[in-house]
């Protein structure tokens, strides 16, 4: 597994790097067993240290967690505990994720845009209906089942996930509703 451990305006020493590698390695071996990359970023927010971790699995899933505390090691431990809790919850599904899959998860590339907020008064008519594009990036859209999409959204801590439905090849969306349930948008079934 490839590790990328860094700090935002914080010097990450050799001891912390070794500790992070040992703890993450143990977590991955215990549950997932197929991690390809681990990205850990330490930063400081006022008097607290913040640790953000993303683990990318060979199956195409990603685990993400964030922890904060007044000590840097405690912030990492908080983050690791959250990762542990997430992975434990999905342990059976993570291990059997590829059991029915003949090949690895495929990803399609799609453009992603960040739009500038409107600075005009709410009552005023906008000069043009075309929004101002602030940034343009490329996003990967996985080809997975609905169940895998819900699991990926939960593991990554996202509010929504756009994916290509493996059942029929159409683009679908799963999202967390305000009432705590999961919503699924499948445009193909709207006819």
Automatic annotation (TrEMBL):
**Stretches that traverse the bilayer:** none
Q: Mainly localized where? A: cytoplasm
Which Pfam families does the record cross-reference, listed alphabetically?
Answer: Ribosom_S30AE_C, Ribosomal_S30AE
Which GO BP terms apply? negative regulation of translational elongation
Give compartment(s). Answer: Cytoplasm
The family annotation for this protein states: Belongs to the HPF/YfiA ribosome-associated protein family. Long HPF subfamily.
Q: Tell me, what does this protein do in biology?
A: Required for dimerization of active 70S ribosomes into 100S ribosomes in stationary phase; 100S ribosomes are translationally inactive and sometimes present during exponential growth.
* Protein's name in the database: Ribosome hibernation promoting factor
Species of origin reads Pseudogemmobacter humi
């Amino acid at each position: 597994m490839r590790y990328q451990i860094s700090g935002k305006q914080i010097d990450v020493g050799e001891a912390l790097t070794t500790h992070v590698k040992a703890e993450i390695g143990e977590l991955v071996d215990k549950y997932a067993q197929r991690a390809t990359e681990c990205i850990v970023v330490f930063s400081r927010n006022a008097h607290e240290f913040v640790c953000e971790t993303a683990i990318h699995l060979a199956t195409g899933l990603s685990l993400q967690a964030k922890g904060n505390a007044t000590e840097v090691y405690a912030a990492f431990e908080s983050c690791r505990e959250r990762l542990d809790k997430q992975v434990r919850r999905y342990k059976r599904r993570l291990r059997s994720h590829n059991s029915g899959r003949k090949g690895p998860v495929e990803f399609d590339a799609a453009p992603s845009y960040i739009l500038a907020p409107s600075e005009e008064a709410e009552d005023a008519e906008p000069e043009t209906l075309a929004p101002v594009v602030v940034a343009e990036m490329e996003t990967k859209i996985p080809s997975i089942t609905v169940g895998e999409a819900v699991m990926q959204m939960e593991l990554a801590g996202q509010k929504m996930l756009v994916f290509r439905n493996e059942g029929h090849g159409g683009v679908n969306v799963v999202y967390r509703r305000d009432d705590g349930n999961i919503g699924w948008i499948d445009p193909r079934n709207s006819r």
